[in-house]
Specification:
The protein is of the alpha+beta class. The chain contains three helices and four strands, in the order H-E-E-E-H-E-H. Helix 2 runs parallel beside helix 3. The mean pLDDT is 90.
Length: 120
């Protein structure tokens, strides 16, 4: 139990360091990613207004058929998020990896969002 708690504390510390520098505006909102064991979630957030402009995850119906714990599902979420962002009028974002390393599912989601038309 102690190991799991320590892991969470380390990620929270990394997240706090990252969030000092990252701030989403209406011109360039923040793309925040959260990775759990079974799912992956992504949101495009305008921090100044405190609003979520677009969101996608493996838990929603469109992506429910795929397992959320693999890179293929993360790619699907990235493409879905890019489509929703285009509808909301967002083309440029700031990528917030939320303390997770830029590797595996996080990288797959980012690459798919870039292919979908988001710039970061």
């Amino acid at each position: 139990m102690e190991r799991i708690k320590l892991k969470r504390v380390r990620r929270t510390r990394r997240k706090a360091g990252l969030r000092k520098a990252l701030m989403g505006t209406s011109a360039r909102p923040r793309l925040s990613v959260f990775r759990s064991l079974n799912h992956i979630y992504a949101q495009i957030i305008d921090d100044l207004e405190g609003k979520t402009l677009a969101a996608a995850s493996t838990a929603e119906k469109k992506n429910k058929a795929k397992s959320g714990g693999n890179c293929d599902a993360a790619k699907a979420v990235g493409k879905t998020l890019a489509e929703k962002a285009k509808k909301a009028g967002v083309t440029q974002v700031i990528f917030d990896r939320n303390g997770f390393s830029y590797h595996g599912r996080i990288k797959a989601l980012a690459d798919a969002a870039r292919e979908g038309g988001l710039k970061f």
